[in-house]
């Protein structure tokens, strides 16, 4: 489904969410549509978007979003290929805050390849939604490492997930070769690791 979007040159903030069961057939909440939306909002500063159709954005000239400082992405299906392909096509010199809401399946299926545009990021929130239908949960520190290695300015990290374990802390406290600093998040000042315990979810790994 293609959409003809009008230019919204003065738009500063936007929230595009799907609430409740089902998705209206008149709306395609895809990664590609989100990229088209950003093309029409050059001055936007804060955007909250739900990706229902996790397609990949085809490589294109980078879209400069000079004023965007807060980006919230809620991924209801699929893996990190979708937001990763989006980042590949964005230039985000002012991005300060990134929130990612996703399922545990997404955690296990991807390594970040295009997150180098997050150099200015100071605050990162990762929220993993777990349900009774979720598959087995494994600790995947390398996936997290591939993201955090792209955020050298990160000062605040907040994680809400039941796949947090001692390996998560080991990753965050690992040293660079020679022991002169942290391998990831070298200037981290605030850390929240909140592990969900759900009686309806499949048991998670032991710490």
Describe, in plain words, how this protein is organized in 3D.
This protein has 207 residues and is an alpha/beta fold. The chain is 17% helix and 21% strand. The chain is built from five helices and nine strands; from the N terminus they run βαβββαββαβαβαβ. β7, α4 (141-148) and β8 form a beta-alpha-beta unit. It is globular and about 50 Å long. Residues 199-207 have low confidence and may be disordered.
Low-confidence stretches: 199-207
Average predicted confidence as pLDDT? 81
The oligomeric state is single chain
Q: What general outline do the C-alpha atoms trace?
A: globular
Structural class: alpha/beta
Strand order in the sheet with the most strands: 1-2-4-6-7-8-9
Per DSSP, the total helix count is 5
Order of helices and strands: EHEEEHEEHEHEHE
What composes the largest sheet?
7 strands, parallel
Please bin the fraction of helical residues: 10-25%
Alpha carbon gap, first and last residue: 45 Å
Strand content: 15-25%
How many DSSP E strands? 9
